[in-house]
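Researcher: I'd like a structural prediction for the single chain below. Treat it as a standalone chain; there are no partners to consider.
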Amino acid sequence: MAWLESNLLSALVFFPLAWALVGLALPTDSSGKSSSGKYWALTGSLLTFALSLLLYGSFDANGADFQFKELAEWIPSLGVSYHLGLDGISLWLVLLTTFLMPIVILGSFSAVESREKEYYFLLLALEAAMIGAFVALDVFLFYVFWEAMLIPMYFLVGIWGGKDRIYAAMKFFLYTLVGSLLMLVAIFYLVSLHKTQFGAFSTNLLDLYKVQVAGGDTFWSPQSLVFLAFALAFAIKVPLFPLHTWLPDAHVQAPTAGSVILAGVLLKMGGYGFLRFAFPLFPQAVQFYQPMFLALGAIAIVYGAWVAMVQPDIKKLVAYSSVSHMGYVILGLFAMNTIGATGAVYQMLNHGISTPGLFLLVGMIYERRHTREISDYGGIAKVMPLYAIALIIMTLSSVALPGTNGFVGEFLILLGTWQTSRLVGAIAGTGVIFGAIYMLWMVQRVMFGPLKNEENRKLKDLTGRELLVLAPLTVAVFVMGVAPNFFFSKMDTSIARFLEKSRATPVAAAKTLNDQPALARQGE
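Model: Treating it as a single chain, here is the predicted structure.
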């Protein structure tokens, strides 16, 4: 137990991967199916979630530093370390990841018909990489996990996706890889600067926070260029307009589990990256580019809503709604105030609940009718009342109805943005109206009206397993909507800390983090 307490983050990162590797050894029949594979994966994901709850119970909400830290030398000659840590921002993103994975696996029980062991192995491996990215405090280690996430998602889309799955998988992979390579170049530059300024190589993030990168107030200054390299990688992952075009293809072609994880967790990597890396490392450049990112966030909100409004495919409509909702995250972050940033982090959590719920519901109806065209439905609330209730709840969460989780995040973001720019805040506010239009119109066309199609009359309502899949998400919608302080209490200190860092000069900011030089830390 003592080992677990001191290595809790390592256990969280590597337990699902080890469990998945054991699952590959389970016996299969002649068709490649493993009757025990899905239950093995579900058990592993539930144990990982239980393990993650220990983080919440032991987390000090008033602590200003990273907690549960683990530090060991990895490549000493290059200053690369195995460094893990957690604050109030990454805490909730880790819990979101471990919360969603059992739901995703349970929701896949009837959807996977071939290569089951490999499918569940990839899901658990993806969970390990995502947790690793959220807790890594070494930029090289973060980059390893960042790239590792691509591999399972690539195969999930490319093997179990739709008819254009290869195209969608390659587009997703190439978009993300290009941004990642530029970020890697920027990492090398920061590490070399640390060598110049402090006499030793270090990829430790806490050491790099102290590096002074020149400029930031012009486009061609070193700080601006390095910031843009990081920002491109994170903006692609968000995805931010106009770098969003890979997302609808990936969502539409991915299996339901892929869409849920993509929307629920992977998109959050972009917002997390801005807050954890770009803001503290390049404070002057962030302020220089603030107007540009505020504009892009507002455009993404309105553009995503307009394009979603004309989609004939339910899944593509939900995919474009993600572009719009993640635009709010960018807006809240670049409002550069506590209200907006808190709303942005909360919006990441909200989007990780409501949009996965919508994708799961789309997958459930697709398994029954094998079509996602809105025109093929109509009136199915008459034969699927439980499904209709679930869809309406997730829709109201998505359109930010007061009392649901979506309202809290969007309200704080718009309030924070209004304090920074009333024009941008007013434009972004129209996204709330457009969101209600396209989501409620979709529900009206799918659920209500005359039941004309004979095939729809034969549809069966939600099964017990499907109700069990949707129940945790439904509870989360209302808990997050009426008790946001439960979540804010753990993240407020961390958000304030990083906003202070983003406004400070590099030297002053380093002192606020209570960091020690790399050589001193290596001797501890």
